[in-house]
Design brief:
The complex is a heterodimer of chains A (about 500) and B (about 210). With about 500 residues, chain A is an alpha/beta fold. Chain A is built from 21 helices and 6 strands. With about 210 residues, chain B is an alpha/beta fold. Chain B has a single domain, classed as P-loop containing nucleotide triphosphate hydrolases (Rossmann fold, 3-Layer(aba) Sandwich). In chain B, strand 5, helix 5 and strand 6 form a beta-alpha-beta unit. The chains are: A alpha/beta (about 500), B alpha/beta (about 210). Chain B: InterPro entries: P-loop_NTPase, Rab_GTPases_membrane_traffic, Small_GTP-bd, Small_GTPase.
């Protein structure tokens, strides 16, 4: 029975279990009795969709065992003190696990049995950014190293790179975030920043004054459009966070003022649900009300809330994400396409993009992702690479089970707060690296490397842009993408476009 | 009545921000404890799935879509409203403005082939702050051709199941009248053949089931 060749695995399943069934039955009765006494659990493998092990430590002993039912309900067992490695050995020795592992080509009906996979926290080296692990978390001494005597950031690119790979130590987040959020410029001296803070504080309180001196009519309108929802939302945002915990917590009131003042400062946007989720962590780290407000202003400029009142920006993000998936995870893209318009809307990741993964990962990990995105290292769209990473790591079930739109929502919704954020981040960095190595990129993804300043193609190599068609407004590709007859993009040294799809394959 | 399978209905919960849509859904899908804690504001779409009995003899699986109340990114979710078999249109009994917006929401979701609507007056446990009478809400529901008006409370677990049951009943009657038909593939109403439902122990396909 060593030939593990697919189709009749489940038949073997039966054969092998048949003769032992009666003895098993007795054992089962004992197990049930034991359950009563010590709360032992059991899982009906016949009802199981997948069994996955996610290791969280480098040694691969701790982590999570995730059992998924066919209804996308998850049972998650946390192994905080080791032992998961032993379990993994047992599973791996159990041949039905290994035999059902990775059989993509089976028919849909037969996929209902089990899927077994193991995820290690270390990606194989071929899937890891070569500069991974070369940066430690940015702590006070490292931070001071980046500043000159006047308190200016000497080389912002180096700082951004360090933050992108290593993150910022909690103790100095409040100090460094204002730079990342464009409240302080990197060239500013400590003195200039103090002056700026004073001036901005004055400005902030003028905005607040404006809010407090509205006419009764204006006030009524403001209450209806903004204040009503803000009041409802601030009391239900991050209340489990120590900083906002408890009745009548003054920090909740501060958050409320910041949001109301922001709506006065930027009336076109006003208040959109989700903004409270973004401002809360800022306040908890930056602490000062006015400073937090101005950081929030900077943050909003980098989110898609700013595109109010239309959805264009969201559509654009989704378009980029679709294109990235098509390029980097074609199997998943195919699945989405097979669902038609419904699938391609990717409803499951709207919240990921809107709140930058805040509801998908515990704070510690989500804020690492925020910092990695804010670093704008090589791209302004790192969050989309994180989306792709999540799909690559946690989307196997979706493809294998051919999950429909709502099942996909349920699948990813249930994974919220149960994913390994460090693993996702590492995968996302490696995806960016792979993107960076592409010999050509479709013109639809041209913007992904447009605004990022120096660094995206720092080796001097610039990929050719290939026109992927569909420019209904123009006759030729507006990005200078190469099609059948075209001119090379400036700087691409006249490489002519190959027309085949496989030019997108990653370079080995 | 179809003995060979069960129906699956896509149901959308709509209404102004902070009227209690998520609490209502959680109370229903996760039991009374789910309706007590105040959930974070919904961003994007949340999804729940729940099977309920559908008299006389069947059951229905409800695919429940929880939406964000605020008018953002609506054009993306709008196409999903259109394919819904039923809509729970929720307002807050203590917030008159949320009641006054009901016709707008109704218009938004009705489209050319209106799904079944149930109007839900939520937070009925806050009797002292009530701003809309049952009579008034009942009239509105009738004038908009809705199946019914139900008053609910997630905190007190009052009528929550009734609201969903009523809606499922309404969808079933619409099916009976031939006003709507089940679709394979496209969301709103589906007839799921019984063999794909994993619950019954004796199924026709032993290969799918572990025998140990």
């Amino acid at each position: 029975t060593s030939s593990a060749s697919s189709l009749d695995t489940s038949a073997q399943f039966q054969e092998n279990n048949g003769p032992t069934q009666s003895t098993r039955w007795d054992e089962q009765q004992k197990v049930f009795a034991l359950e009563q006494v010590c709360g032992v659990f059991r899982v009906d493998l016949g009802q199981m969709r997948s069994l996955r092990l996610f290791f969280s430590d480098e040694a691969c002993t701790c982590g999570q065992l995730v059992v998924a039912s066919r209804e996308s309900q998850y049972k998650i067992f946390h192994f905080h003190h080791g032992g998961l490695d032993k379990l993994s050995e047992v599973f791996q020795q159990w041949k039905y696990c290994t035999e059902t592992h990775l059989k993509d080509q089976q028919l849909a009906d037969e996929k209902t049995c089990m899927q077994f996979s193991i995820r290690r926290p270390k990606l194989p080296s071929s899937e890891t950014h070569p500069e991974e692990n070369t940066y430690k978390r940015l702590d006070v001494s490292a931070w001071l190293h980046h500043l000159n005597e006047a308190g200016q950031v000497e080389e912002e690119y180096k700082l951004q790179k360090a933050i992108f790979f290593g993150g910022i130590d909690i103790s100095i987040r409040g100090e460094v975030w204002p730079f990342l959020l464009h409240y302080y410029s990197y060239e500013s001296t400590s003195e200039e920043r103090e002056a700026l803070r004073l001036q901005k504080r004055k400005e902030y309180f003028e905005i607040q004054e404006k809010r407090l001196s509205m006419t009764p009519d204006e006030q009524k309108d403001f209450w209806r459009k903004v204040q009503f929802t803000v009041d409802k939302d601030v009391v239900r945002t991050d209340r489990s966070n120590q900083f906002f915990r408890g009745e009548n917590n003054p920090n909740v009131e501060t958050m409320r003022r910041i949001l109301l003042n922001y709506a006065v400062y930027n009336p076109t946007i006003g208040y959109s649900q989700g903004m409270s989720d973004l401002v809360a962590p800022l306040l908890a780290e930056v602490l000062d009300e006015s400073d937090t407000f101005w950081c929030f202003v900077g943050l909003m400029q980098n989110t898609i809330f700013i595109s109010s009142p239309r959805d264009e920006d969201m559509e654009k993000q989704l378009m980029y994400l679709r294109e990235l998936l098509r390029l980097m995870h074609p199997r998943f893209y195919q699945h989405l396409s097979s669902l038609g318009e419904d699938g391609l809307q990717m409803l499951f990741c709207h919240r990921w993009i809107l709140l930058c993964f805040k509801r998908e990962f515990p704070d510690a990990e989500a804020l690492r992702m925020w910092e990695a995105c804010w670093a704008h290292y090589q791209t302004d769209y790192f969050h989309l690479f994180i989306c792709v990473a999540i799909v690559v790591i946690y989307g196997d079930d979706v493809i294998e089970q051919q999950l429909a739109t709502d099942q996909m929502l349920l699948h990813f919704g249930n994974l919220a707060m149960h994913m390994n954020g460090e693993l996702v981040l590492r995968k996302a960095r490696s995806l960016l690296y792979q993107f960076h190595l592409l010999p050509r990129i479709p013109c639809s993804l041209h913007d992904l490397c447009k605004l990022c300043g120096t660094g995206m193609w720092d080796s001097g190599f610039i990929p050719a842009v290939e026109c992927s068609g569909h420019h209904p407004e123009c006759e030729s590709c507006p990005y200078g993408g190469l099609a059948e007859v075209s001119s090379p993009k400036p700087g691409s040294e006249g490489k002519r476009g190959l027309k085949t799809r496989d030019v997108f394959a990653f370079r080995k | 009545p179809d003995l060979g399978g069960h129906y699956q209905f896509r149901v959308i919960v709509l209404g102004d921000a902070a009227v209690g849509k998520s609490s209502l859904l959680r109370c229903f899908a996760e039991g009374p404890a789910g309706g007590v804690a105040t959930p974070c504001p919904t961003v994007g779409v949340d999804f729940y799935s729940c099977t309920i009995p559908l008299p006389p003899a069947g059951r229905a699986k409800l695919q429940l879509w929880d939406t964000a109340g605020q008018e953002r990114f609506r054009s993306i979710t709008r196409s999903f409203y259109r394919s819904a078999a039923g809509v729970l249109l929720v307002f807050d009994l203590t917030n008159r403005a949320s009641f006054e917006r009901v016709p707008e929401w109704h218009h938004e979701a009705a489209g050319d082939r209106p799904p079944a609507f149930v109007l839900v007056g939520h937070k009925c446990d806050l009797a002292a702050q009530r701003a809309v009478s049952a009579e008034e809400a009942g009239h509105l529901a009738a004038s908009l051709g809705m199946v019914a008006f139900v008053e609910t409370s997630a905190r007190g677990n009052l009528n929550v199941e009734l609201a969903f049951q009523t809606l499922a009943g309404g969808i079933q009657r619409a099916l009976g009248r031939g006003g709507v038909t089940p679709h394979r593939g496209c969301g709103g109403i589906r007839l799921i053949p019984s063999r794909s439902h994993p619950r019954p122990p004796a199924r026709g396909e032993p290969r799918q089931r572990c025998q140990c």
